[in-house]
Amino acid sequence: MSKLSEDFLWGGAAAANQLEGGWNEGGKGVSVADVMTAATHGLERRITQGIEENVYYPSHQASDFYTRYKEDIQLFHEMGFKCFRTSIAWTRIFPNGDETDPNEEGMQFYDDLFDTCLAYGIQPVVTISHFEMPYHLVTEYGGWRNRKLIDFYLNFCEAVYTRYRTKVNYWMTFNEINMIVRKPWKPGGIQWNDGENKLQTMYQAAHYMLIASAKAVKLGKEINPDFMIGGMFLHPTSYAATCNPDDVLAQVKKLQQAYFFLDVHVRGKYPRSYYRFLKQHQLEIETAPEDELILREGTVDYIGFSYYSSSVVMANPTDQDKSEGNEISGYKNPLLPASEWGWQIDPVGLRITLNWLYDKYQIPLFIVENGLGAVDTLEEDGAVHDPYRIDYLRQHVSEMKKAILEDGVEVIGYTPWGCIDLVSAGTGEMKKRYGLIYVDKDNDGKGSLKRVKKDSFYWYKECIKSQGKII
């Protein structure tokens, strides 16, 4: 066999806060993404206290998908998408997050969006919370450091599950849930107080989010037993720097520390290594008596994950250069090339990751993010030539196929990030482009927003048409 099954979900991925724009239209409230500026001169994106005047916020217009979604979905259809992974902006449904009743105008927008997808035979794959929680929940409740957010989140889940129960089958509870213990602002709305124990706060918030996820899975199954509800995980693929057992052990420990999220998602309980970690760092996580049962009853149907690059782990770090990546710390692998942003390109690492995850958990996997950020040039003749992106995607699809056809890994689908140019989550830039469709807009927010098919658009179209045979 050289091609994948007919029911394999080829598609593309995006997130509301990076694509939609329309930040204050249709009754939408302010999200945590809406108060993030673009990064300048290599510095971190600044988080402002509310919306400041004369400040450029990339998410406010983003790629203007809010008004152009019909045009964009038609282009997705032309590529042959079987699915489109996106998110529902929490603040379109509950502008402040703590309301009782949803905002009808926001609900109708997603009705229209999903109807458009379905009219073209494209299944929506929906992340419920993707780095766009209401800013009001930060200022009034402290973000996910507060257990009260579980109820607000579940109210959001109930509203969208119920409204779209016949339109959306594939759901994910949180985007890259393990980001809460890495960069807690975007997933958790957490800013630090003076003297706060950061590790304690992050792991407490992680527990609340895992409880919320489990309750959301159970709730979704009650509303529609046919729902496929997964978790979504940033996979920190890494290798030991040498065959020194100390380096190998350091790499094992790094994965253990990350995998506790998946252990809870899939097995419904924390692993022993998690409790050892808490003890080692003198962390005491507040739990409720019912939490153990909640986790056990809310296990996921599949694992969605992001994979872009890999890194190296060493027991005794040297002056070796740090490796850049999707919010992942590590060291550079001298055997691998890197992108313009320093992310190491490792297609075989995707096959390794698929094998690790499937061997460990034995449930279906879904590659919901994979792609190359690069500077693309719009030529005078209107073309965008991106052979580097085609090469990246070709190699990763090839390794995915080997994992499925040769190794026996069960993979639901593949949705490269992002199918259309959008705002970079890490930097707020537009010039760091991932899309197969070019959007005419620069880092200062200037441009016509015209859509242009890149060479990778046509490559992916043939890949999908041949079920991955022609790559």
UniProtKB/TrEMBL annotation:
It comes from the Bacteria. One of its GO terms (molecular function) is 6-phospho-beta-glucosidase activity. InterPro entries: GH, GH_1_N_CS, Glyco_hydro_1, Glyco_hydro_1_AS. The keyword Mitochondrion does not apply. Its EC number is 3.2.1.86. Keywords: Glycosidase, Hydrolase. Pfam families: Glyco_hydro_1. It is an enzyme of class 3 (hydrolase). The active site is at 369 (nucleophile). NCBIfam families: PRK09589.1, PRK09593.1. Belongs to the glycosyl hydrolase 1 family. This is 6-phospho-beta-glucosidase. It comes from Paenibacillus xylanexedens.
